[in-house]
């Protein structure tokens, strides 16, 4: 479990980028849910935390593929592969992320720092 | 409707085919494409693909396992259209009769006269172009890029990153001045200069020199710039010559209403080849950017399937991006309507800033340079409050 940020510092509609390898984006939806996915778009090297949050979907800031924060699924190209989702735990008003142990779907040209 | 023929098997054609299926069209769907390749994405051709960071498989536009029930006719060009009979004739001598026709033939790189005869001179529009240029870059040391539009500026940046000695010849005051306006284009120009691209402004190329292989370019003032490889990036012309004599109204592209409908019922056009009516600007114009094709494919499909009665959503302001060096450039709107530009965040000199173009108090365009998050907010703002004709 990795501590991300205090709950109070992440208002609804906002995102927080957790500098893990690869980075993780934590979103607080307008409905009050807290959800975490891989921050890197599967199409190219864009940060989804910089994207546009609408309901439970994040629109990539570069080429507008949308990812479902609950399932990681993408709606339409240019991105073709889903992002990983991660479990979120809130304890004592701090947001924690339990990183998924699946392989990340990184875009071409992007590698894990540990393997660069 | 029993048969729809989509002419042009690239971004606009594939997305319209996909939208037709998504909107319930279950009939025969034929996709005609002049290139041998399955639909691929062009933006990386001047950037990550040219640099060698992504491969050909990464360019594919079709989803994995996507099954649209398409009859592919690749490697054949449409040569004519009988608009009344709705028959498309093909370069292999066959023809296709269809109830609905989608014209998505895109645009072709404009060439310099005489450039075809010389090895080492390239334009960049297709995968085959990019393969050839990439091959030449392996041994080249000096490159001259003619034209400072997006393709020219991107190729210059990529080649510079690869270690070539690069000269960019631009006839105007600065690359990209046409779209970004002079002050912001200047910021991009200094970026290129700082990264070692030699910029020739206000310069005209009069001649490509060399016998079998190019060895340089000559400018109007007599200067000779030596080069092992030359890239010509002087714009694109819509691929509509096959439609001449068809009765379809043509201007700079296929003239369309705000839903992609052409002057002939049952025929729509979309993507770089199409000049849609833009109610906010009050004119017909082509949008030669990726997102234009993406946003309009579904509209064109709805127009076709409804026989022209579908009411299109109001068009959103044009958006494009460009990657040069490690800089992400994003732009939305039309700079030509602006009477002021202010930098709202960051600093021009750092190549990280957000600039807002205004007409009076009203934002009409926004430029983001390495300001992805802030740009996204402004983009939303402009998209939900569409730009009105000024
Ligand atoms: C190198 C490059 C980099 C780019 N970078 C960016 C970028 O960073 N950002 C951005 O927003 N946009 C960018 N673009 C623009 C973007 O790629 C285009 O807007 C987009 O490709 C338009 O799609 P289209 O399907 O309308 O046309 P095209 O992609 O041009 O496709 C048209 C297709 O029709 C085929 N065709 C032509 N004539 C016929 C015929 N008679 N019969 C059958 N088939 C025919 C062609 O072979 C082609 O495959 C870039 C373009 C290029 C070339
Ligand atoms: S980088 Fe996300 S859609 Fe292209």
From TrEMBL, chain A:
GO molecular function annotations of the record: dioxygenase activity
Signal peptide span: none
Residue spans crossing the bilayer: none
Key words, A-Z: 2Fe-2S, Dioxygenase, Iron, Iron-sulfur, Metal-binding, Oxidoreductase
InterPro entries xrefs: Rieske_2Fe-2S, Rieske_2Fe-2S_sf
Pfam families: Rieske
Rieske domain segment(s): 2-97
Gene3D superfamilies listed in its UniProt record: Rieske [2Fe-2S] iron-sulphur domain (2.102.10.10)
PROSITE patterns assigned: RIESKE
Protein name, entry field: 3-phenylpropionate/trans-cinnamate dioxygenase ferredoxin subunit
Top-level division of the source organism's lineage: Bacteria
PANTHER family for this protein: 3-PHENYLPROPIONATE_CINNAMIC ACID DIOXYGENASE FERREDOXIN SUBUNIT (PTHR21496:SF23), FERREDOXIN-RELATED (PTHR21496)
UniProtKB/TrEMBL annotation, chain B:
Keywords recorded for this protein, A-Z: FAD, Flavoprotein, Oxidoreductase
Pfam family, one: Pyr_redox_2
Domain Reductase C-terminal: 319-384
Domain FAD/NAD(P)-binding: 3-296
TM region positions: none
Cofactor(s) required, per the database record: FAD
PANTHER family listed in its UniProt record: APOPTOSIS-INDUCING FACTOR 1 (PTHR43557), RIESKE DOMAIN-CONTAINING PROTEIN-RELATED (PTHR43557:SF2)
Protein name: NADPH-dependent 2,4-dienoyl-CoA reductase/sulfur reductase-like enzyme
């Amino acid at each position: 479990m990795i501590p991300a940020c205090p709950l109070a510092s992440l208002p609804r509609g906002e995102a927080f980028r957790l500098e893990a390898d690869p980075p993780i984006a934590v979103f607080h939806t307008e409905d009050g849910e807290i959800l975490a996915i891989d921050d890197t778009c599967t199409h190219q090297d864009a940060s989804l935390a910089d994207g546009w949050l609408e309901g439970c979907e994040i629109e990539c800031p570069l080429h507008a593929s949308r990812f479902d924060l609950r399932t990681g699924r993408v709606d339409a190209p240019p991105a073709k592969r889903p992002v990983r989702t991660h479990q979120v735990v809130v304890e004592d008003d701090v947001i924690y992320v339990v990183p998924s142990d699946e392989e990340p779907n990184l875009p071409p040209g992007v590698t894990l720092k540990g393997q660069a | 409707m029993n048969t729809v023929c989509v002419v042009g098997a690239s971004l606009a054609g594939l997305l319209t085919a996909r939208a037709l299926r998504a909107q319930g069209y279950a009939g025969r769907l034929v996709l005609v494409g002049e290139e041998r390749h399955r639909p691929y994405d062009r933006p990386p051709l001047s950037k990550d693909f040219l640099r060698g960071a992504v491969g050909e498989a990464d360019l594919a536009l079709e989803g994995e396992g996507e099954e649209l029930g398409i009859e592919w006719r690749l490697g054949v060009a449409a040569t004519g259209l009988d608009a009344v009979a709705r028959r498309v004739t093909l370069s292999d001598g066959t023809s296709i009769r269809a109830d609905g026709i989608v014209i998505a033939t895109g645009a072709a790189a404009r060439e310099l006269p005489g450039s075809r005869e010389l090895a080492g001179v390239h334009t960049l529009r297709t995968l085959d172009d990019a393969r050839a240029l990439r091959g030449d870059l392996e041994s080249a040391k000096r490159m001259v890029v003619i034209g400072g539009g997006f393709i020219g500026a991107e190729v210059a940046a990529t080649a510079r990153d690869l270690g070539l000695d690069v000269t960019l010849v631009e006839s105007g005051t600065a690359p990209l001045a046409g779209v970004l306006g002079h002050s912001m284009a200047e910021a991009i120009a200094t970026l290129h200069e700082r990264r070692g691209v030699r910029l020739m402004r206000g310069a005209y190329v009069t001649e490509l020199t060399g016998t079998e292989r190019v060895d340089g370019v000559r400018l109007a003032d007599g200067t000779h710039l030596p080069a092992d490889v030359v890239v010509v990036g002087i714009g694109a012309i819509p691929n509509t010559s096959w439609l001449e004599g068809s009765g379809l109204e043509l201007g700079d592209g296929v003239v369309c209403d705000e839903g992609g409908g052409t002057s002939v019922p049952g025929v729509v056009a979309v993507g770089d080849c199409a000049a849609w009516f833009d109610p906010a600007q009050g004119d017909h114009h082509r949008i030669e950017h990726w997102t234009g094709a993406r946003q309009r494919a579904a509209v064109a499909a709805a127009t076709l399937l409804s026989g022209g009665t579908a009411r299109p959503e109001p068009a959103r302001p044009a958006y494009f991006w460009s990657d040069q060096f490690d800089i992400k450039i994003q732009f939305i709107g039309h700079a030509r309507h602006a009477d002021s530009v202010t930098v709202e965040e960051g600093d021009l000199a750092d190549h990280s800033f957000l600039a807002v173009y205004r007409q009076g108090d009203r934002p009409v365009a926004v430029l983001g340079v390495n300001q992805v998050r802030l740009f996204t907010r402004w983009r939303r703002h402009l998209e939900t409050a569409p730009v009105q004709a000024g």
